[in-house]
Amino acid sequence: MTELIYNHQFYNNHKNGESIIIDRERKYIEKIINACRPTDLFVNSIWFENDNQLKELLDKKPKRAIIYSGMDWHDNGFRRSVHEEIAKNVEEIIYVGNKDGNGYFSFWVFFVEDFKSSFYKEYKQPHTFDKLYMCLNRKRHQHRVKLVDALKKEKLIEDGHITLGGDPDNNIPPLTLPNDYKSTAGDSTVGDRKEGIPNDITSTGKNEYWDSHLINIVTETTTSSETFISEKTWKPILGLRPFMILGDYKIYQYLKDYGIDTFDDIFGTGYNDPDWNNRLTWIVDTLHKLKDVDYNLLYNKLLPRLVKNRDMFEEVVKINQLRFNNVLEKIK
Fold first, then answer.
1. Between 295-331 and 231-238, two packed helices, what is the crossing angle to 10 degrees?
2. Side by side, which strands form the sheet with 131-135?
3. Is 169 within a domain?
């Protein structure tokens, strides 16, 4: 066990019971810290920076740094300088969490397992689809804004249920659903942001919207790391929907390794393009191709595969637990 522990102040300020994400994440962080050697530095990389706290810890000359990413992605872009500062001061670094490689495991798989009953869907008969797709977006990340703009430009906006957070600083209102949730348990974790879209991380939203769309377009949190997979990706899998994902480049590789069907025969393999802009174009082009198909016929054709995907999540949880156990052994 180590006492050299870095958490950003925003993380430390959350008391138990205030955040359903941080409350759960602390369980896994505690196990990692307990596996560390006394001379290790544990770094929770969520929002970390070159602040006085990190400097004081590095001044203690730790032998190794265990750098963890859980609720957010492994940020080696915007926060590259923090990684470089740690690397200059320790002999060895072990990355665990959302970093592709031997230290990989997903906190979000554990989170979704806790709330599985809220995501889990049974097939309802009869089933009528009014919309080709659903694409829900809260924070205005570049790839999300660009996708929504493309859907508008290509006149696909009326074919889907779509949201996008606003930007009050620039007088940009949110794009909302008329009867959406107003607040959720996930809002406390995002501080005082005012996107105007609830941070719904524990359900698939209102049934009237979920039940009436065919394809779920997932815009993951980032396109700038390797394989960040949040609850957003697991919603359509547990909720019996075919999906296309705009996110990190290796997401599909991991899903296939889990045994998840990615419907390549229906959507193609445009996700293989290393440029997320081209992957965005693939999504829009595919929606155009499917706009005039019989939604109900296609869904019924895919249903056995959707059920298999949903049921495969139990194996995903087991794999993720093994990965987490291997991380603890690696650290020890």
1. 130
2. 160-162, 131-135, 213-219, 243-246
3. yes
Considering the domain boundaries, does residue 332 fall inside one? Answer: no
Residues 251-274: pLDDT tens digits? 999 999 999 999 999 999 999 999
Kindly tell me if the per-residue pLDDT of 28 is higher than 90: yes
Across all residues in the chain, what is the average pLDDT?
Answer: 93
CA-to-CA distance for 144 and 212, rounded, in angstroms?
Answer: 22
The domain in which residue 42 lies consists of 4-99
Residues 106-129 have pLDDT tens digits of 999 999 999 999 999 888 766 789
Same domain, 94 and 135: no
Domain count, the chain: 2
Q: List the one residue out of 163, 158, 165, 157 whose CA is nearest residue 141.
A: 165
189 — pLDDT class (breaks 50, 70, 90): low
In a domain, 272, yes or no: yes
Q: Which DSSP symbol is given to 157?
A: G
CA nearest to 166, candidates 129, 140, 143, 189: 140
**pTM of the predicted structure, to 2 decimals:** 0.94
Residues across the chain: 332
Query: What is the DSSP track for 162-198?
Result: E-B--BGGGTB--B--TT--S--GGGGGGTT---SS-
| Exposed / middle / buried, residue 13 (Cβ in 10 Å: 0-12, 13-18, 19+) | exposed
